[in-house]
Amino acid sequence: MEKAINEAQIIMLPGGFSAGDEPDGSGKFIATVFRNPRLKEAIHKHLNEQDGLILRNM
Predict the structure, then answer these.
(1) Who's near 46: CB < 8 A, 6+ residues apart?
(2) Which residues neighbour 39 within 8 Å (Cβ) at sequence distance 6 or greater?
(3) Is 34 exposed, middle or buried (0-12, 13-18, 19+ CB in 10 A)?
(4) Furthest-apart CA pair in the chain: how many Å?
(5) Based on the structure, what is the number of domains in the chain?
(6) How far apart are CA 44 and CA 5, in angstroms?
(7) What gap in Å lies between CA 49 and CA 27, rounded to an integer?
(8) Alpha helices, DSSP H only, in 1-58?
(9) Measuring CA to CA, which residue among 24, 15, 19 is closest to residue 54?
(10) Residue 17 has what DSSP assignment?
(11) d(CA 46, CA 25)
(12) Which of 2, 14, 34, 56 could form an S-S bond across to 18 if both were Cys, CB 3.0 to 4.6 Å?
């Protein structure tokens, strides 16, 4: 996943019921991604150094 982030121009995060019927399921998924230090660093690099874009589907 880190390699895919580093090669991406746009990152799309799921929203709504994409993570199941559990309330805030997608929010929990996104929080889990940011708890991984390698993915967190890749996302920060994507935004700050590569001028990338992140979208969240609602």
Answers:
(1) 5, 6, 8, 11, 52, 54
(2) 1, 2, 5, 33
(3) exposed
(4) 36
(5) 1
(6) 10
(7) 25
(8) 2-7, 25-35, 37-48
(9) 15
(10) T
(11) 24
(12) 14
- From residue 38, give the alpha-carbon distance in Å to each of 6, 14, 33, 50: 11, 20, 9, 16
pLDDT tens profile 5-53: 999 999 987 766 655 556 667 777 788 888 999 999 999 999 999 889 9
Angle at 21 between CA 20 and CA 22, to 5 degrees: 95
Question: What's the token pair of residue 27?
Answer: 């929010």
Range of the domain at 8: 2-56
